[in-house]
Amino acid sequence: MDIYDSLLIDKIKLITIDKYLSIFGKRINGDIICTLFTIFNLGYILYDDQWYHFNENYHGWRIITDMEILQEMNVNLVCSILKKCNMVNYTIDLTKISQYINIGNISSKSVDRMRSNLFLSGFKNKLDKKPILRFLDCVYDFELKSSRPGRPNDFFLRRYFVDEELIDYILKILASTLTPGNKLRSLLFFIGNGRNGKTALANILKFALGEYAAIPNVSLFLGKSVSSDKANPHMVELNNAHLAICEEPDGRSVSITGDAKAITGNVGYIKARSLYKDLENIFIDLLPIINTNDKLTINNVDTALMDRIIVIPFTQRFIPKYMGSKREENEKFADILWQGNHSKIFAPAFMKLLLDHYQNDYTNLTPPKKVYDATYEFILRGDHPGRFIKQRLCYTGNEQDKIKLEDVYIIYKKWYKNYVNGGVFHYTTEDLRLDFAKYKVYFEQISNSTSKENKCPQTVDILKGYKFY
């Protein structure tokens, strides 16, 4: 909307207020004040499950309370209307309104009645769905692809990752969070062994994205899912966020929750409720990022999760300067410049980097070898059949090399009892077949030659092109 249209709409509102007062303004009361407030703020204030106010200085919608609305009516309404009158060269007599506000009382019941006039069902589910990113001083439109002037500095990323290909890939993934939606349908893990910049990068990302970044408890993604009939405030917090950043879980071996699968599986609306509130539909389509050490294992990896997990390896390590004599090749001196609240300084420059790396289409984004290898190793750490394939099976490509399913099962059972758990082995040949298929290792059924005793042909499951180490 340009300035001319905006001023024209403002003048129409003022004419409507003037006409309303000429008819109903002989005796002023709280309801009349609320009606004037409604007309004047039409398009800027509305009600769904709570009040929303469009703040021009903030460039977006903000949640406000009944008390803030009452304060706005009692303190600012008359001045705001007169200010608009001056802008559009129009005159309204607000003497009676001003006198009533000075001595009268606008009750909360009058504000309650405003809710029906300004009610817009499902408004909160429409917030932040367009490819537009709000800043404190501007709006960035991804359809226009307009970029503000700036001189970004990516020095801190080079300290963390060294590899330019890896830096470019990470920036493209993080840039995907500037608009709604988990573009890669992925669950991102920042993994390292401590003092390697994971938290510093996450902090800069938080400062850059502001309210678009949620900070829920990691149990929402790793652990046990909360049933929809129980309160789950962490889930409610994710409504309309672009990104969720979680710190590492307490346990070393954890499961990815059903909620995490739903969120990364493009479900969209999920039922959840806050404490002492009713169930509501929450729109969640975001990228989860989990900071963790390199000891974490996932114990419920399936085919779908294998395609969603992405691991960003943090291989550098930052040590205090007094330990310089003991520094190893991959260690660097820690710099407080990138730590704690200092990182807030670099958020604008980091945002410029993200804007420059944003892509309209993420379907062809290919991970570098370092990311692929780190992801593969992370999955294998908690997936025993995958580790067995890597350690005990050798791919030859020769179809003359054949192993029976029963033989693979026997060897796997011995390996499991020796290296994983010596207890009861609850695992079938069919389980093994399905787990091997996750790694594109498939058993074929071939017919055995019939014997004189048994004229019916028998089928045997065979693994071709492999042999044991």
From TrEMBL:
Superkingdom in the source lineage: Eukaryota
GO molecular function, one term: hydrolase activity
Keywords: ATP-binding, Hydrolase, Nucleotide-binding
ATP-binding keyword on record: yes
Domain SF3 helicase: 165-327
UniProt-listed PANTHER family: ATP BINDING PROTEIN-RELATED, SF3 HELICASE DOMAIN-CONTAINING PROTEIN
Protein name: SF3 helicase domain-containing protein
Higher taxonomy: Eukaryota, Fungi, Fungi incertae sedis, Chytridiomycota, Chytridiomycota incertae sedis
